[in-house]
Amino acid sequence: MSSSAAPAYRRMSVEQRRTQLLAAAVDLFGHRRPEDVSIDDVAVAAGVSRPLVYRYFPGGKEQLYEAAVLGAAQELIGRFAVPSQGPPTERLADALDRYLAYVDEHDAAYGALLRGGSVAETSRTDAIVDEVRRGAAEQVLHHLGVTAPGPRLAMMVRSWIACVEAVSLIWLDEGKQPPVGELRAWLVDHFVALLLVTATTDPQAAEAAARCLAEESPASPAGSLVRRIAPLAEVAAHLLPDPPG
């Protein structure tokens, strides 16, 4: 018997095979620029033939890339979906723990799929990535008890989501430093600070902030932040004019 005989393909269901091919593509996109990945590369990584890849992804690399982005998007949006129990900042911390765990576990893929700038991008992939941001923002607003945000509150939440994404990418560039727990705590503090600043000029944000703070406890992330800010507030008090009369 010839030792050069090609290995037989492992029989899989349609969904199993599609998942296998997509996993191979995501891994390649995570370690190389998408434009440097070919269908042949995906076939070799998955241990299948080139025609088989096209059978499941007739749109070629562009379809594979879109599917990879969509899979990451669905996973990331799901990471913000946590039970509506406990102080809001504890829920937010839990969501961030889940999100940053995904970034940590899929670091190369996260960077490749969400950095942007690839020639493999399409209007469809741009829309999918934007859906991550919108989905995450909807989850955050849900925990704020807001169903119809005004422009200022919506802008505040969306800007914070963009910050989380940018900080996650910087964290990867910096060798995952500071430790993930410190990063998560800082991002929660950042959210609370943005909400409180927005509350000073936006009635809807003020109402949401008051409602959420009423649910906080001394041990929650918001309670800890208030204790740390209090001494700074005393130092800043000299900037205020004396009351009249």
Could you report the average pLDDT, rounded to the nearest whole number?
85
Helix-and-strand structural type: mainly alpha
Low-pLDDT stretches: 1-8
| Main sheet makeup | none
Q: Return the CATH architecture of the domain at 65-234.
A: Orthogonal Bundle
The CATH homologous superfamily of the domain at 65-234 is called: Tetracycline Repressor, domain 2
CATH topology of the domain at 65-234: Tetracycline Repressor, domain 2
Order of helices and strands: HHHHHHHHHHH
Give an account of the 3D structure:
The protein is mainly α and 245 residues long. The protein has a domain at 65-234: Tetracycline Repressor, domain 2 (Orthogonal Bundle). It is built from eleven helices and no strands. The N and C termini lie far apart (105 Å).
Q: Which tags fit this structure?
A:
single chain; 245 residues
Task: Present the secondary structure layout.
Elements: H1 14-31, H2 39-46, H3 50-56, H4 60-79, H5 88-105, H6 107-114, H7 123-144, H8 151-173, H9 180-199, H10 203-215, H11 221-236
How would you summarize this macromolecular structure in one to three sentences?
This protein has 245 residues and is mainly alpha-helical. It is built from 11 helices and no strands.
